[in-house]
Structure formats: structure tokens, C-alpha cells
Design goal:
single chain; five-stranded parallel β-sheet; 5 strands; about 10% strand
Length: about 240
């Protein structure tokens, strides 16, 4: 069946990066920002708390947003109010976070791929794991050289109630726009997070430039290749 909708992952896909390197770069910056605002904490302990907050989002059962799941967890870990904690985080993601572009390798192919899809009349969606606030996601879109207006959907932690690889995360997107899974393609680089959508009947394209397979999971995908090969694939649709 014809592909009429493409769901794109961002980190490691349209924004090439090694996830572990990226996290190692920006997490200490986040801790430094809190300390500079007078919050007394040990960077190592703070980073561990943020990681456990991430796990709280991944385990979210849909009863609250990922934002609520994260900050409910962090409220116990920080010696300041929840409101002040989030204010510092949002200020960081709007400013110092931009230094982390140095841990990524933007490719002009990313915008070319999205534009090629749209020229074909294919709807495009940014199905990035919703563990970041919108401002952080908009910055990463900009680093990648993409136009946010090209995406019908951009998933962020403010309203999403599930994370990858949960099928509920993908199901929410499909149901929100009334998409037929047989007409959709998921493009991503993470074997565990992005290929799980196959269980819903969606075809997948695994991008190999910075392929992530941390658990060594056996996998199947309909297509795979580099960003350059993906561009030619989209042009051929």
C-alpha cells in the first residue's frame, strides 16, 4: 500500500548523534545551571536523579503527562519548590542547552528528506521520544536544520502520556490523526524504541548512520540504510 504518512524520530535520526555521548555532554551542564542558581546538590547525585526521573516517564501508565511524572519524581530529590525547579530547567533548555549541539552532527540530508516527502504529498510527523519540554525539542529541531512547520505533530513531554517503546505512544499518534497503519512509515535509528511500532502494522525504515541497539535485540525492519539512502528512497515513493 502507498505510504501517505511518515513518522520521523529526531535524536540519532534526523539529528545524527550518539545518544550516550550527547547525554554525557549536556547532563553536567544541567547540574551546573542548578548549582549556579544557588541550589546545593552534588552533580553526580543530581544526574542520577534526572535519570530516575527519565525512567518514571518511560514507565508512565497514561494516568498523567510525562511532564507530571518527571516532576513528581524530582520534587522529592531537590531542596527547592517544584515551581522553581521547573523554571530553572526551562531556562536551561532555552539557553545553555544549545551548547550541546557540539555533541551532534547535523546533516543537510535531514531537511532534504522531510521536504522531499512533503513535495510528494506525504504528511510528516516528528515522533521524537517525549521526554523533553517543547523548548528543548524546538532547539534540537533547529540544530538539525529542520523547519518545525513541516511537521503535523511534534511530540513533547507537556502532553504525551507514554514514551517509546510503548505501543500506546505510537497508538496515540495514529488515533489522533485517524491514520491507517498500512499507509504509515516509521523512520528511526533505535532498534528497541522505533521498531516496536511494527506490532501495530506500521512499516519501518531503520537509519544506520548512528544505529542504536544497546540490548542486542534481534530485529526485523522493512527497509534500512543511511540518511543519504533514505533521501533517495523517499524521492522514489
Amino acid at each position: 500500500m502507498e505510504i501517505r504518512h511518515i513518522l520521523f524520530d529526531l535524536d540519532g535520526t534526523l539529528l545524527p548523534m550518539i545518544q550516550e555521548k550527547f547525554v554525557r555532554f549536556y547532563m553536567p551542564l544541567l547540574a551546573k545551571t542548578y548549582i549556579s542558581r544557588g541550589v546545593e546538590l552534588e552533580p553526580k547525585d543530581f544526574i542520577a536523579s534526572v535519570w530516575s526521573g527519565y525512567e518514571a516517564m518511560v514507565k508512565n501508565d497514561g494516568t498523567r503527562t510525562n511532564r507530571e511524572a518527571f516532576w513528581a519524581h524530582m520534587e522529592e530529590k531537590l531542596p527547592i519548590s517544584l515551581e522553581e525547579s521547573e523554571e530553572i530547567a526551562l531556562d536551561f533548555y532555552a539557553n545553555e542547552f544549545n551548547e550541546a549541539i557540539r555533541a551532534t552532527k547535523p546533516s543537510p540530508a535531514a531537511d532534504q528528506i522531510v521536504k522531499a516527502a512533503r513535495e510528494k504529498g506525504i504528511e510528516t510527523y516528528l515522533a521524537t521520544n517525549p521526554v523533553f519540554p517543547r523548548c528543548a525539542t524546538m532547539n534540537r529541531i533547529r540544530w538539525a536544520g529542520l523547519d518545525a512547520g513541516d511537521f503535523k505533530e511534534i511530540t513533547t513531554y507537556e502532553y504525551c502520556r507514554y514514551c517509546k517503546p510503548s505501543l500506546e505512544y505510537f497508538r496515540e499518534i495514529l488515533e489522533k490523526y485517524g491514520l491507517d497503519p498500512a499507509e504509515c512509515l516509521m523512520v528511526g535509528n533505535d532498534v528497541e524504541e522505533d521498531l516496536s511500532i511494527r506490532s501495530l502494522g506500521v512499516r519501518t525504515y531503520l537509519v544506520t548512520d548512528t544505529l542504536e541497539d544497546r540490548k542486542g535485540i534481534p530485529y526485523e525492519t522493512d527497509y534500512m540504510g543511511t540518511l543519504s539512502e533514505l533521501l533517495e528512497f523517499v524521492k522514489s515513493l
